[in-house]
Amino acid sequence: MNKILLTGSTGFIGSELLRQFKLKKYFIHTSSRSTLEKNVNGVKNFIINQIDNDTNWSEALEGVDCVIHCAGVATETYKLDTSVLSYYRKINVEGTRNLAYQAAAKGVKRFIFISSIKVNGERTGGFLSFKNTDIPKPEGIYAISKWEAEQSLHSISKQTGLEIVIIRTPIVYGQQVKGNFYRLINFIDRGFPLPFGKVNNLRSYVALDNLVDLIICCINHPKATGQTFLVSDGEDLSTPDLIKKIAFILEKKPFLFPVPISFMKFAGKIMGKSREIDRLVSSLRLDCSHTSSLLNWNRSISVDEALFKTVIDYNKKQ
After folding, report:
1. 99, 108 in Cβ contact below 8 A?
2. pTM, full prediction
3. Beta bridge partners of 46
4. Are 53 and 40 in contact, with CB atoms under 8 Å apart?
5. Of these residues, 142, 173, 205, 314, which one is catalytic?
6. CA distances from 11 to 50, 73, 83, 129 (A)
7. What whole-number distance in Å separates Cα of residue 149 and Cα of residue 142?
8. Which string of DSSP letters, residue by residue, matches the chain?
9. Is 205 one of the annotated active-site residues of the chain?
10. N-to-C CA span, the chain
């Protein structure tokens, strides 16, 4: 495909996609709230201050073959408040639906939507892994809004013929990472004691490089249309193992001490942090065999390489 519209081009995923597109000399339209990328090196930026049901995408979609939709509200909340859910739906559901309808009307061929594994659920038990064919069980408002957006896109596809590709991701890490992953690196770097010595879970992660590689693969792959893909690095880690790997790169000794998981969950409940604790002690695994076999896709970078790049980038900021 010759021309791509990338939304969320200044975000964590979008900015790396944009960098790769420049290297590959793709002709790109971007949408963002800034003018940083305006008409530079094959990139034409369109200022979109708000993504909702009223956003006019006509100029940004002109001549576009494929839309990659990264933009949206990403902060998780489990407070099932009507006003909060309405806000998430306004952007993640109605905004996505509006963009897809306009894209179809403009003759766009393919729409790639970056979703979340949270659509499947918050945890997997034992040796189980989420599959792309599992019945969705979203819990938080963010996950619910992503699932509703996915359903809207499939409905639009049936009505218009717009090719839909869904990519559900676990936690994404890499250079410029923020949020909880950054805080974990910071805690390890500062030598804070971490109470996860008794944790024996397994969680899937995906390096930014691997995710971006899969997204680019889906732009033109003939078998991608109509599919839901799960993506990970293919090497699940326990929370203690992740901490040890990061500490090794930082040349620090990990300060892990054993605390009963039941006590951590009890403390989390008292402090209103049950979900945060659950993420650190529970398992969440992805079965990406469908993605690999259908697309003949394999990760471009190993976990150790990706963690090294992430931590080195963190060190540059200290």
Report:
1. no
2. 0.94
3. 31
4. no
5. 142
6. 15, 11, 25, 29
7. 11
8. --EEEEESTTSHHHHHHHHHHHHTT-EEEEEESS-TTTTBTTEEEEE-S--STT---TTTTTT-SEEEE--S---------HHHHHHHIIIIIIHHHHHHHHHHHTT--EEEEEEEGGGT-S-B-TT--B-TTSPP---SHHHHHHHHHHHHHHHHHHHH--EEEEEEE-EEESTT--HHHHHHHHHHHTT--B--TT----B-EEEHHHHHHHHHHHHH-TT-TT-EEE---S--B-HHHHHHHHHHHHT----B----HHHHHHHHHHTT-HHHHHHHHSBB-B--HHHHHHHT---SS-HHHHHHHHHHHHHHT-
9. no
10. 41
Return per-residue pLDDT of the chain as tens, 318 residues: 679 999 999 899 999 999 999 888 888 999 877 665 455 667 888 988 889 999 999 999 999 999 999 999 877 655 556 778 899 999 999 999 999 999 999 999 999 999 999 999 999 987 899 999 999 999 889 999 999 999 999 999 999 999 999 999 999 999 999 988 999 999 999 999 999 999 999 999 999 999 999 999 999 999 999 999 999 999 999 999 999 999 999 999 999 999 888 888 888 888 877 777 888 899 999 999 999 999 999 999 999 999 999 999 988 877
Q: Tokens 């933009």 label which residue?
A: 71
